[in-house]
Amino acid sequence: MSGIKWSQIEAEVKAAREVSQLYPDERKEVFTAVLTARLVMNPPGAPDARSAEVAPDAKPPAPSELFAQLKVDSEVSRVLAGAFFLDKYRGLPDFTADEVKQCLVEAKVPAPKNVSLAALQNSRKGLMAQKKKSGRKISWYLTLSGIREVERMLSTAIGDLEKTQDRE
Fold first, then answer.
1. What is the CATH number of domain 63-167?
2. Which of 11, 18, 20, 3 is nearest to 39 (CA)?
3. Strand order, beta sheet including 94-96
4. Residues 127, 146: contact at Cβ < 8 Å?
5. Which ranges constitute the DSSP H helices of the chain?
6. Is residue 75 within 8 Å of 112, Cβ to Cβ?
7. Is 150 helix (H, G, I), strand (E, B) or coil?
8. How far is it, in rounded angstroms, from Cα 1 to Cα 14?
9. Distances (CA, A) of 19 to 8, 22, 31, 57
């Protein structure tokens, strides 16, 4: 049985045992179900997706790439797209208006004079929400509706691009 990582199996057994102890009446069944599920999701000897190396030439997208696809024209939409970029590609689930403005500057698109006001307008539409307020700084996050709206904008832009290419 070469290639099997016994330490991985031991860790999965330990995790299943801990969960099963929460259910004393069904301990054996829960242990079996949890262990089976964990081993199916991450089989011993298979490459671990969590530790897979990223190709050295793989680069994260630049903000300008997103804005080149979207072709947003309003300040409110640009702030929403910038928030989407920070959430999805920079791993910032919550962010300040200054961080969104910096993203827009990096993308070389006009930033609103008052990014906070544009964020508030998105908030009124249910696309963004206030997370916390610390002094004059407000942290915002993208709502599920906001994510869907930018994804809709992206799919519309991609569809328009495909139609243009079909005509050529």
1. 1.10.10.10
2. 11
3. 94-96, 137-142, 128-134
4. yes
5. 6-20, 27-41, 63-70, 75-88, 97-106, 115-124, 144-167
6. yes
7. helix
8. 21
9. 17, 6, 7, 40
**68 within 8 A of 108, measured Cβ to Cβ:** no
Domain residue extents for the chain? 6-45, 63-167
The CA distance from 107 to 62, in Å, is: 7
Dihedral of CA 106/110/115/118: which sign? negative
pLDDT tens-place string over residues 30-88: 788 777 777 776 677 665 444 444 455 567 788 998 888 887 889 999 999 999 999 99
- Name the residue type at position 117: L
Type of residue numbered 135: G
Token look-up 């249910």 returns 126
Q: Cβ atoms within 10 A of the Cβ of 18, count? A: 11
Is the per-residue pLDDT at 1 higher than 80? no
